[in-house]
Design brief:
The complex is a heterodimer of chains A (about 650) and B (about 250). Chain A is α+β, with helices and mostly antiparallel strands. Chain A has 3 domains: about 190 residues, no CATH class; about 230 residues, no CATH class; about 140 residues. Helix content of chain A is about 65%, strand content about 10%. In chain A, α9 runs antiparallel to α11, α11 packs antiparallel against α13 and α13 packs antiparallel against α19. Chain A starts with a helix and ends in a 5-residue tail after the last helix. In chain B, the strands form 2 sheets. Chain B has a 6-stranded mixed sheet, with helices on both faces. Chain B has a 4-stranded antiparallel sheet with strand order 2-1-4-5, covered by helices on one side. In chain B, α3 runs parallel beside α5 and α5 packs parallel to α6. The radius of gyration of chain B is 18 Å and the shape is globular. Classes of the chains: A alpha+beta (about 650), B alpha/beta (about 250). Chains A and B meet through α12, α13, α19 and α20 of A and α2, β6, α3 and α4 of B. Chain B: InterPro entries: AAA+_ATPase, ABC_transporter-like_ATP-bd, MacB-like_ATP-bd, P-loop_NTPase. Chain B: This is Putative ABC transport system ATP-binding protein.
Chain lengths: ~650, ~250
């Protein structure tokens, strides 16, 4: 029989075997084609990228995506090669040369890849269309969809070339495996032999300690300048943390989990139960055969989740911080009375006089002397301006908070008391009790004591940092001197923060005012700047999570095929369908749960470390990482849940099919 | 001794085959009896075993095990029935690879929710009876074929079922291992009074039984009883009958 007709017959007659390979290849190629189509979509790129940043990111992410396609297809190919070694051994016994066998394998791979490409192009095209629709809807872009074809021919050609390159690589890898294996090895490769598990409690406990130490170092970053990251150096500690996490994970899987399972095995009261007696030893057996993959999967999913979470955090955190950075809907320093009047008239026309409120606040920049001057006092000096406190009246503070729809949460002040508005959170409130001698003109000073500190600045950072809320009496006293003062106009109103028309009405009038800020404008800018990054990273993250899910699927389904006789004998011993299903389900659950939990745990600590190290803490809440974290874990859980369900059903089909269910 | 197994007019035809695999088969097995089933390949031995052990259903006829008409049981009831009343020994052992010998023997008892102490006690008693006490902590891959089959026999017997089905238990064993297994099986049979129904091609293994039914074309074609004969004499009888059956074929 010709090799080509044999390859076609093999694929046609072993549909259930090859379909697994076919669908996974089609899925990966569809995702790949979607990505390539997006990166070659000039219509959308010209809308979201003005400086070539998105194109650069696309090129960077493309490297990872191609690497993933190569890795994934090689893994799938190797997996199927191993499952076919006995069959190949029989071919060898029948007199097939290794070259002929390689031809057969290559032809089969070509058939599957050709089928995969045929399925992937329309599917990937649809995915791409969906992604474009999502981006245009999120960013409010006007895009002519008819200019975007379902199948981008350039992208299709690129995909085809990549697949050809991967096919060549697979052929080389198969050739290597065939020529390195003897006939005996080929026939025996499929046979599994169970050997006693060498339990190494010391290595297990050591691994656990390494992991805890790694997590401890990540948490230590939260101590800021007191942490060893600052004292010893970022790079060495980062490397050490990574090393601890990697080695700890490896030892956890290789030694700690087997040790825990063995403890279960020794506790006969727990172990001698119909489900446990099957599940625990089978899990131990799979730990031995798939330990390396599991370690890789944990690190891959942990890393992917951390990068994805960090990207979401980088987008989300500035948006949340906007409430502090620009507390009113719009704000500007009154540099010219005419400008102010024109602005209010423009607002009257756009939103109506009842559609907005405004508040004018006088800010006095005052020099002060104290042994405990806060960091905020010198922030202006860092930016080339004069150092000093920007003082506002207590009553103005209340009015501004009212304008912003917030409660006044400051304590009532006595004459010589003040409230310091902090730039960064200070949970220890160490400024309370500090006495500042505020210059009121000439050599006179007015002493105020800090009664409380707060993060709630009613004036935006563009107009005031290091704000001091003082009583109206003290404020008047400060006005008697030569303190520099200016007026800040804050505009608020229901729904005004998101009203584009209001911003656009003021923009031409205040275009020359460097102190003009708008919550709407800043938010739009942040979304525009970050959404493409978020999109590309999300894309890469989803691809990597799909890779981990697919690998788990392959391994679990393969184990189910191997274990089918075991389940048959269990059925004869009296395990009913529900009990067998439960045993199968438990095994799939444990096998999915280990990388899921470990990956999540790694990413939680990595994200905490990232946030503490690289992000300006404006909100002072550790819960600030919660939303990005939940977002990352949510996506991860969703992908895993889908894979878990698909895998579980595939295992049920494999194990229970022949019993008429 | 009362009847443990009563088979009455059992017929089974597979869709792809024209002739019935079992054709109006009827026989009985008494409590503690060691019954052998012999016959050429395709004579219906394995079908009979599957039907009797509730793995498959007959098209017609009745099978009573302890007065329960087993073909009438649904899937869950059949599984529960197997759990409590039947033991299995196979040619390929079918021990669970990832479990040690001790755990393999313990599995049927966990299904019956025995306590850990009871399971340990019974496991060790059976391991001693089948002379595999020193192998209890080993995995099946570390044992010889004979040891594996004795472990499988211990697993089948550990819950003391009233009826054990053995499908070619010596088929994959050398003569020494076959002898060890059959001796152990016969001893346990005599001591515990368990009824054993064994399908075999091997006249030597069959010589340990009390009675042999010869199957041909799905029917019982001949029967041979020990009737108090010594092992050697019964073995000679079996050889002669087997040769006669082969000639007829």
């Amino acid at each position: 029989m010709k090799v080509s007709s044999m390859a076609i017959k093999n694929v046609r007659r072993n549909y259930s075997f090859y379909s697994l390979y076919f669908f996974s290849v089609a899925l990966v190629l569809a995702v790949f084609f979607c990505f390539v189509s997006f990166s070659m979509n000039e219509v959308i790129l010209e809308k979201i990228s003005s400086d070539g940043r998105v194109e650069t990111m696309c090129r960077a992410v493309a490297v990872f995506v191609i690497a993933f396609v190569v890795f994934y297809m090689s893994y799938a190919n190797q997996f199927f090669m191993r499952r076919r070694m006995k069959e190949l051994g029989i071919y060898a016994l029948l007199g097939y040369t290794k070259t002929r066998m390689l031809c057969l394998l290559t032809l089969e791979n070509m058939l599957i890849c050709a089928g995969g490409i045929c399925a992937a192009l329309p599917a990937g095209g649809l995915l791409h269309k969906g992604a474009v629709w999502g981006i245009t809807a999120a960013l409010g872009l006007a895009v002519d969809s008819s200019r975007i074809p379902l199948i981008n021919l350039k992208a299709a050609a690129f995909c085809l070339l990549t697949v050809l390159a991967v096919l060549a690589a697979l052929t080389l890898s198969n050739a290597r495996l065939l020529w390195r294996s003897t006939l005996m090895e080929t026939i025996r490769m499929e046979r599994r032999t169970e050997k006693p598990f060498r339990i190494r409690p010391t290595a297990g406990v050591f691994g656990m300690l390494l992991l805890l130490a790694g997590y401890g170092l990540a948490l230590d970053m939260g101590r800021g300048k007191a942490s060893c990251w600052y004292r010893i150096g970022f790079s060495p500690i980062a490397l050490l943390t990574m090393l601890l996490a990697v080695v700890g994970t490896a030892l956890f899987i290789l030694s700690f989990l087997p040790f825990v399972c063995n403890m279960f095995r020794d506790r006969k009261n727990i172990f001698y139960r119909e489900n446990t007696i099957i599940t625990v030893p089978k899990f131990m057996s799979r730990l031995r055969t798939n330990a390396k993959s599991l370690i890789l999967l944990i690190l891959l999913s942990g890393g992917t989740l951390a990068v994805f979470g960090a990207t979401v955090l980088s987008v989300w955190y500035p948006l949340v911080s906007l409430e502090r950075i620009i507390p009113s809907s719009m704000e500007f320093r009154v540099l010219d009375r005419g400008e102010k009047t024109a602005a209010l008239e423009a607002l009257d026309k756009t939103v109506g006089s009842g559609g907005y409120e405004f508040c004018e606040t006088i800010v006095r920049k005052v020099k002060a002397a104290s042994e405990r001057l806060p960091a905020e006092y010198g922030i202006s000096a860092d930016k080339g301006r004069e150092a000093g406190f920007e003082c506002i009246r207590e009553t103005d503070y209340e009015s501004l908070r009212g304008l912003q729809g917030k409660k006044n949460n400051l304590p009532s002040l006595r004459t010589n008391e003040c409230v310091l508005i902090k730039y960064r959170p200070d949970p220890s409130k160490r400024d309370i009790g500090a006495v500042y001698a505020l210059e009121t003109g000439g050599r006179r000073t007015c002493k105020v004591t800090v009664k409380d500190t707060s993060l709630e600045n009613p004036i935006g950072f563009a107009n005031s940092v290091g704000t001091l809320v003082v009583t109206d009496e003290v404020f008047e006293e400060l006005g008697a001197g030569s303190a520099e003062s200016y007026t800040v106009m804050s505009i608020g109103g229901r729904g005004l923060r998101t009203k584009k028309q209001a911003y656009e009405a003021l923009r031409p009038i205040l275009s020359g005012n460097p102190y003009f800020v708008s919550a709407f404008q800043r938010k739009s800018e942040l979304i525009k700047l970050n959404s493409s990054t978020l999109l590309l990273i999300s894309f890469a993250a989803v691809i990597f999570l799909i890779a981990t899910g697919s690998i788990l699927y392959f391994q679990t389904v393969s184990a189910a095929v191997y274990d089918r006789p075991d389940y048959e004998i269990m059925g004869r011993m009296g395990y009913n369908y529900d009990m067998i299903k439960r045993a199968v389900r438990s095994q799939v659950q444990i096998y999915f749960l280990v990388p899921f939990l470990m990956g999540t745990l790694h990413s939680v600590f990595a994200l905490f470390c990232y946030k503490s190290a690289l992000m300006d803490d404006l909100l002072g809440k550790s819960s600030a990482v919660l939303v990005p974290l939940l977002c990352a874990i949510g996506s991860y859980s969703l992908i895993y849940l889908i894979y878990y369900q698909v895998t579980k059903r595939a295992c049920y089909r494999i194990i229970l099919k022949e019993k008429g269910r | 001794m009362h009847t443990v197994l009563k088979v009455k007019d059992v017929t089974k035809t597979y869709k792809r085959q024209g002739n019935p695999a079992l054709n109006r088969v009827s026989f009985e097995a008494k409590e503690g009896e060691f019954l052998g089933i012999m016959g050429a390949s395709g004579s219906g031995k394995t079908t009979l075993l599957n039907v009797l052990s509730t793995i498959d259903r007959p098209d017609r006829g009745e099978i009573f095990i302890h007065n329960i008409n087993v073909p009438k049981l649904n899937h869950a009831q059949a599984a529960d029935f197997r759990k409590r009343n039947l033991g299995f020994i196979f040619q390929e052992y079918f021990l669970l690879d990832s479990l040690t010998v001790r755990e393999n023997i313990a599995v049927p008892l966990t299904l019956l929710h025995w306590t850990a102490e009871e399971i340990e006690r019974e496991t060790e008693a059976l391991a001693e009876a089948f002379e595999i006490s020193s192998q209890l902590e080993k995995y099946p891959s570390e044992l010889s074929g004979g040891q594996c089959q004795r472990a499988a026999a211990a697993r089948a017997m550990v819950k003391r079922p009233p009826l054990i089905f053995a499908d070619e238990p010596t088929g994959a064993l050398d003569s020494g291992s076959s002898r060890d297994l059959m001796t152990a099986l016969a001893n346990v049979n005599q001591r515990s009074g368990t009824t054993i129904l064994m399908v075999t091609h091997d006249p030597y293994a069959a010589s340990y039984t009390d009675r042999i039914l010869y199957f041909k074309d799905g029917c019982i074609h001949a029967a041979l009883e020990r009737n108090g004969q010594e092992w050697g004499d019964f073995y000679e009888c079996i050889l002669r009958e087997t040769a006669r059956q082969d000639k007829k074929r």
